[in-house]
Design a protein that fits this description.
Length: 66
């Protein structure tokens, strides 16, 4: 699992998330989009991405060595 996460973190994960966050932020400029359920879920997912990734990283780092 640690090897998989290392490859995932080295891939375009953060660049992709930055582009998704930018798209959600630009959608938020529209009053109609801000009121939609899809926008609210996308914004929530973008806000929750880094804390979840941090938690997974802390969990992996605290595992005993194999």
């Amino acid at each position: 699992m640690a090897g998989y996460l290392a490859v995932l973190a080295d891939s375009d994960l953060f660049g992709t998330m930055a582009l998704i966050s930018l798209a959600v932020a630009l959608m938020g400029l529209s009053r109609a989009a801000r009121g939609s359920r899809a926008y609210q879920l996308a914004a929530f997912a973008c806000l929750l991405f880094m804390p979840v990734l941090y938690g997974v990283g802390i969990y992996i780092l605290n595992l005993p060595p194999a």
